[in-house]
Every structure is written in C-alpha cells, then in structure tokens.
Amino acid sequence: MSLLRILLFFVREAYVNLRRSWRVSLLAVFTITTSLFVGGLFLLLSENLARLLEEWRSQAKVIVYLSAPPSADQRNDLLQKLERASWVEGVREVSAERAQQRFAEIFPSLADLTLEWSEAPLPESLEVSLAPASSGDDGLPAWLAELRRHPAVELVDDDRDWLRQLELLVGVFRGVGLTLGALLLAAATLTIASVIRLTAYLYRDEIAVLRLIGATEFYIRGPFYAEGLVQGATGGLAALAGLYAAYRLIRPQSDAALLGTVLVGDFLPMAQLLFLLVLGAAAGLLGAILSVRREAGVL
C-alpha cells in the first residue's frame, strides 16, 4: 500500500471517528480555539503596542518649560546650551499662547478652563528634538540634570522616561499573555488526549483484531494521529476567525479610545497567523500521541 493511500485511509478513519463522537470532539476543538484565541489576542495587543512604542520613540522630545518670565540673557544662554549639545537635532520655541491653543485642540472639552485664568495658564516652553542614537549616550543624563538647574528652567520633561515605563509594561503584558496561553494550550492538549483516548477505548475490539492480522502500530495509530491533527487545526482556524472578527468589531471605534487604537492598529502578519495555526495542529497531534500510548492493553 502506497504512502498516499495510507494517509487517505488515516484521514477517512479520522473523519468517521469525529462524526461518531462529534460532541466530545467539539469540546476538544473548543479548548484549542479558546487557548489560541487568548494567546493570539495578547500577541495582537503586544505587537501593536510595540509598534506604537517605536513610533513614539522616534518622535520623543525633551520639553523644557521656562520660568515666568526668564531674562533675555538667561534665555540666550539656555538656547546656546541647547544648540551646542551634539545630541540635539533641533529646538522649537512654543509660546504660552500656542501652548494654550494646542491644549484646546487636544482637549476640546476642557478648553474653557484655560479661559478663566487671568494670566497665561500654560508656560512658555522649548521642544528639543534628540538624535535617534542619543539614547545610549552616557553624557545625556548629566546634561539633562544640568539643564534642570538652569535659572531659566522651571521643569524638564523627558518623553523617554514614560516610554521606558510603557516598554516595561508591554514586556510584562506579553509575558502574562504567553504564560496564560501556554497553560490553556497545555489544558487543550490534555483534553484532546482524553477525547482520543476515549475514542480508542470504544474501538478496542477492532484494534485487537487488527493486531491479530498483523497490522503495524503505525497503521493502527495513524487514524488517531490524524484525528488529533484535524481537531487542532480546526481549533486554530476557529481561533484565527475569532481574532479577525474581534479586530473588525473594534476597528470602527479606533478613534474613540487608546485601547481601540492599540488593538486595531494592524492585524497580525501572515507569519504569526501561520504560527498560531501550526501551533494548534501540533497541540492536537501531541495530544493524540499522548493518548495512544499503551495503557491497560487498549493500544
């Protein structure tokens, strides 16, 4: 018998087993779907967060808020200090009026609050753009500390501080997702193993007859391997469909909240989708392999 005919036999027998025990097979598929959906959702969120972090890091600035009002000499000395630094790409002056206008554009519902102030509610500032390679410069922290002590400076806000905190949060988020997904996938693998083990027990008489007539172990166990593989791949496909449905559901709300923006920025690339599908099929195959080991003379 050729290999192709053997494989077709395995698939046909797996289909018969799945059709006869569709209720318990549905449970196995559901567990695979749930585990891959949860893992894929965490992966989708973390990938989009990482992408946003890269975009924000490329646009990171040091905002220097000026004391009110600095003298002309202090302002000129501060500007020269900024322009002399090798890691500074550019300096943009933002007046108090422009700062108030920006606030009204970003937070329109709070714009009226700034109108109640008799003086300018927001200070004048300098937006300092840093070179992309400046993050690893050892002299930058000391330069920022010196900048904070300048008499014309009220406050220095480094965007990279909160970006580092957000990067740590993304790492923790990804770790939690991987751990939870791995635990659920292990539970799904054990569920598939139990389901196929039950199916094998129901066919114990036929298995005994096959052994008596000289059938090989691979020929006997092949249909169960195919059954686990089909269950895992079906669960993987269902998980991918659920992920895409969630992506499309939240996408219209992408401008309403940060979570929506993160979730629907980009869908998972094809390589990661194939990885989830292969992972589901591999989990089903592993469950089948675990289920058909010799125990109590069944297999």
Explain the overall architecture.
- The chain is α+β, with helices and mostly antiparallel strands and 299 residues long.
- It folds into two domains: 3-55 and 164-291, no CATH class; 68-151, 2-Layer Sandwich (Alpha-Beta Plaits).
- The protein is 70% helix and 8% strand.
- The protein is built from eleven helices and four strands; from the N terminus they run ααβαβααβαβααααα.
- The protein has helices spanning 3-20, 22-58, 72-84, 96-106, 111-115, 139-148, 159-202, 204-212, 217-250, 258-264, 270-291; strands at 61-66, 88-94, 125-130, 153-158.
- Strands 2-3-1-4 form a four-stranded antiparallel beta sheet.
- Helix 7 (159-202) runs parallel beside helix 11 (270-291).
- The radius of gyration is 31 Å and the shape is elongated.
- The relative contact order is 0.18.
- The mean pLDDT is 76.
Features:
299 residues; alpha+beta; Alpha-Beta Plaits; 11 helices; 70% helix
Give the secondary structure arrangement, pairings included.
Blueprint (H helix, E strand, L loop, with lengths): L2 H18 L1 H37 L2 E6 L5 H13 L3 E7 L1 H11 L4 H5 L9 E6 L8 H10 L4 E6 H44 L1 H9 L4 H34 L7 H7 L5 H22 L8
Antiparallel strand pairs: 1-3, 1-4, 2-3
Helix pairs in contact: 1-9, 2-7, 2-9, 2-11, 7-9, 7-11, 9-11
Instruction: Please give the oligomerization state of what you see.
Output: single chain
Order of helices and strands: HHEHEHHEHEHHHHH
Instruction: Bin the strand percentage.
Output: 5-15%
Could you estimate the helical fraction of the residues in percent? Answer: over 70%
The major sheet is characterized as: 4 strands, antiparallel
Overall number of strands? 4
How is the largest sheet built, in terms of strand order? 2-3-1-4
Computed over alpha carbons, the radius of gyration is 31 Å
**Can you count the helices?**
11
* Contiguous uncertain segments of 5+ residues: none
User: What is the general shape?
Assistant: elongated
**Structural domains: how many:** 2
Secondary-structure-derived class: alpha+beta
- Terminal-residue CA separation: 23 Å
Mean pLDDT: 76
